[in-house]
Amino acid sequence: MPFHLMDKSVNFHAQALDLRSHRAEVLSSNIANADTPNYKARDINFQKLMQKQQHGPVKMDKTNHQHLSIGGGSDNPIALYRVPGQASLDGNTVETHVEKAKFMENSVKYQSTLTFLGGRFKGLKTAIRGEL
């Protein structure tokens, strides 16, 4: 594989890890605030942000006044409010079972991306050493 293609692949997966890490923070914040009155559950649209990254650097623009920036930085993904399946009387929109499932799914995908990258680097080391 030509080096520039390898670099693109590694960069893509590094960006995926970064977004998955941000998403884990958002989801864990939701879980931690499950009993906070009027707390609104948030999430990021991982696939949409990764598609944008494939076409160059991602500029995280707010497309709606209700979107929130994570950490207030312009380089951070946009967190969107999650619409609950069943509203709570205290205004909290966190559904703990949904948040835990999404957190676990995100964790598994984060780990599989790490495993994939590890395999890429192992293959590079083998190629550099000239091993079979």
Could you describe the 3D structure shown?
The chain is mainly α and 132 residues long. It has one domain (3-129). It is built from three helices and three strands. A three-stranded antiparallel beta sheet has the order 1-3-2. A hairpin with an 8-residue loop joins β2 and β3. α1 packs antiparallel against α2 (46-54) and α1 runs antiparallel to α3 (96-129). The two termini are 16 Å apart. The model is unreliable at 70-76 (pLDDT under 50).
Describe this structure in a few short sentences:
Helices cover 55% and strands 6% of the residues. By secondary structure, it is mainly alpha-helical.
Which features characterize this protein?
132 residues; mainly alpha; three-stranded antiparallel sheet; 3 strands; elongated
The number of helical runs is 3
Shape annotation: elongated
Please report the total strand number as a whole number: 3
- Biggest sheet character: 3 strands, antiparallel
State the order of secondary-structure elements, H for helix, E for strand: HEHEEH
Structural class comes to mainly alpha
Helicity range of the residues?
A: 55-70%
Low-confidence stretches: 70-76
Into which percentage range does the β-strand content fall? 5-15%
Kindly give the count of domains: 1
Enumerate the strands of the largest sheet in spatial order, edge to edge or round the barrel. Answer: 1-3-2
Radius of gyration: 18 Å
Query: What's the mean pLDDT score?
Result: 81
Q: How far is the first residue's CA from the last residue's CA?
A: 16 Å
Quaternary structure of the protein = single chain
